[in-house]
Amino acid sequence: MSLKSSIKTVLTLGQGVATGLPDAADDADPIDLFRAWFSAAEESGLLLPESTALATATPDGVPSVRMVLLKEVDERGFVFFTNYESRKADELEANPHAALCFHWAVLQRQVRVNGQVERVSAEESYAYFASRGKGSRIGAWASKQSRPLPEREELEQRVAEYGSTFKGDDVPLPPHWGGYLIRPSQIEFWQGRADRLHDRLVFTRSGTGWTTKRLYP
Questions:
Q1: Chain centroid to CA 178: how far?
Q2: Which of 50, 58, 164, 213 is least buried, going by the fewest C-beta atoms within 10 A?
Q3: CA 23-54-121 angle, 5° bins
Q4: How far apart are the C-alpha atoms of 201 and 217, rounded to whole Å?
C-alpha cells in the first residue's frame, strides 16, 4: 500500500461508527446504498475493495467459498467473471443460487448478498474480457481452472502456445469463459458500532421493490 493510500486508510478508520445506519424507508434502494459504501471503500485506500467472498453449493447442499472480484454493480445486481469449467461454475450451473460477502474492515462495514445466478450475455463478457491485459486474456485460454495440474511447466507451456497462436493484441473470448450475474433477493448492511452494538439493516426483494427491517446485532 502506498503512503497516500495509508494516509487515506487512517483518515477513514471507523467511518460510520459514530452515526451508524439510519432507518431506511421501504422505497429505499439498497443498490444505491451499496454504491455509496463501495465508493467510500475505494476512497479509503483499501487494497482491492472489490474483492468479495463468493459462496456456492452443490445440489445436495455441500458448500464452498472463495474470493472473487466484483466487476459491475447495477440495477440488475452484481457481476463477476470466471472460467465456466471451474468448480464454482459447475456448482452454479447445477444450483444457480449464491451468496456474496464484502468486508471492509477499516470502515467496520460488511455487506451480505443472496440471490439467483445467471450468465451474462456473450457481448457483456467480451466487453470486459477485451479490457483485460493481454497476459490475462492468454491466461484465460491456457488455464483449465480447477482441473489437476501435474506440474507448473505444463501451464507455462500452454501459455506459450496460446501466446504464439494469438500474436497480435486481438485475443478472442474463450467459449469457456464469461460472467455471472447475481440478482439479489436479499442484501444486508452491517455497520460496526461501539460495545458491539452493531447496526444491521436488511433489504428483502418484494415484487419490484424492497422491504427493510433492522436485526439485533
A1: 14
A2: 164
A3: 95
A4: 10
Asked if the model's pLDDT at residue 198 lies above 90, the reply is yes
What confidence tens digit (pLDDT) does each residue in 78-88 have? 999 999 999 99
SS3 state of residue 68: strand
Predicted pLDDT of residue 11: 46
Q: Which domains does the chain have, with CATH numbers?
A: 3-130+173-214 (2.30.110.10), 131-172 (no CATH)
Is the alpha carbon torsion for 189, 73, 43, 209 positive or negative?
negative
What average pLDDT does the structure give for the chain? 91
pLDDT at 161 over 90: yes
DSSP states along 90-140: HHHHHS-EEEEEEEEGGGTEEEEEEEEEEEPPHHHHHHHHTTS-HHHHHHH
- Residue 92 is predicted with a pLDDT of 98
Q: Is 196 a catalytic residue?
A: yes
